[in-house]
Amino acid sequence: DAGVIQSPRHEVTEMGQEVTLRCKPISGHDYLFWYRQTMMRGLELLIYFNNNVPIDDSGMPEDRFSAKMPNASFSTLKIQPSEPRDSAVYFCASGLSGGAVDTQYFGPGTRLTVL
Amino acid sequence: KNEVEQSPQNLTAQEGEFITINCSYSVGISALHWLQQHPGGGIVSLFMLSSGKKKHGRLIATINIQEKHSSLHITASHPRDSAVYICAVLMNRDDKIIFGKGTRLHILP
Predict the structure, then answer these.
(1) Which 3 state secondary structure label does DSSP give A14?
(2) Given an 8 Å threshold on Cβ–Cβ distance, is B43 in contact with A102?
(3) Span A90-103, pLDDT tens digits
(4) Nearest-CA residue of chain B relative to A39?
(5) Contact assessment for residue A102 and residue B35, using Cβ atoms and an 8 Å cutoff
(6) How many CB pairs below 8 A link A and B?
(7) What are phi and psi of B100, to 5 degrees?
(8) Nearest-CA neighbor of A45 among A53, A4, A55?
(9) Mind listing the pLDDT tens digit for each residue in A14-61?
(10) Which DSSP state fits B82?
(11) B30, B96, B101 member nearest A58 (Cβ)
């Protein structure tokens, strides 16, 4: 298996633009997580899905952020409109049933820079 | 006060030394997770613990639920162990995940 796939790996955009980050989890995994990492706040959980259903989105910073999982093999995290403070590395991870912190497999991350 | 505290924040040691990284938490948890983030940014899941001890190669993780404390040990440390080690807990009251700030480990050859 190729592991968790994220795209793009790097994104530079201007303030106000819409940004869409994509994630393909490992086949057969039923949990999918979106994380954000910044120097100031460290690693934060934004939202996670189980069987394509959002379970906890309390980490989503504000209404500008939305996440979808239309099927078991694809998820998006969208920021509209983007702001400079959204600059961070966004990680997607997938895992199997057994608990929300059971072994997770992380993607390589998307480094987002909002100018 | 953060609900998950890691110590030390930074650690530099010589190759071969025994390394201990600590994680203390103040909330009730159902599980604790140790993650390793390499200098290139990639994150690897090391252990998930709910009690006792786990070992994988040169890595050992322990947890004491009563004392709300976990340790990650590295035996015979090697420069390739240089990374940030992050502790994460799953809170049992609402299933939220809280992360420590991480411990930056640098092993000198």
Answers:
(1) coil
(2) no
(3) 999 998 865 444 56
(4) B101
(5) no
(6) 53
(7) -75, 170
(8) A55
(9) 999 999 999 999 999 999 999 998 878 888 889 999 999 998 888 898
(10) -
(11) B96
